[in-house]
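Hey, quick one: can you model this chain's 3D structure?
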Amino acid sequence: MLVLKLVAAPLVVWLASQAGRRWGHQVAGLIGGFPLIAAPIMLFLAQDAPRDLVVETAWLIMAGSPAVAAHCVIYAWLARFCEGPWQWIACLLCAWAGCVALAWVLTGWAVIGPIGYVLALGVGLLLASLMPRPRTPATLAPIPAIEIAVRMGAALALAAAAMFGAETFGPRVSAVLLVFPITASVLPVFTLALHGADATARLLSGFALGLLGFTTYFFVFASLLAPFGPGSAFAAGALVSVAAVSLALGLQRLRPALRGKSK
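Sure thing. Here's the predicted structure for all 263 residues.
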């Protein structure tokens, strides 16, 4: 069971990296933004932990999900202005600090249910709107195999730390740890070092869009876990989260056409 839990993190990094190779940085970020790590962890926890505890944790994760958007915005802006060999460390530490601080506040004042879902989506979208716009054209990401291997190793280490905390502490600390951006910590570091600030901004804007699926998943999972059980809640959450992001992507692509007609 522990092996299955830990495999999820490097697998997501591998999938996102392969997507970046084929479709560019923004698609890599979009895949990384989905709850492909936190969702399986919660499913496994729901098999062993008390149901009420898991439901409470899921609601808190939903409430704290905008903190990942804050992480993305902070990292993207600092990547544009920080320089030097330790650029990635400064960006990462500041983004982590902002993410954990906001997650702690949001989970302390959590609103559950549909109102909480709308609030979480609203805060996440507001933060995503603050993302810096790239100044250069988009390109594909030529990621060598050795870099992908290092990315996966880093993700495994972060996932192990988050798993230990999630199974040791209470719901609020567990929620903050499961919101903690593992993929959004690993991928931007390599993207910034090898492809620059604009590629990093595209990657993290994709993350911000994928977070719509993250928030939606935990709303559905928390709502359905008690009456229908973990398997049904997991499946329904996955389907609805994919539908939510697909709708957002469709609207995003439709917007330029509508602007053109209005002119």
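One thing worth noting: Residues 2-262 form one domain.
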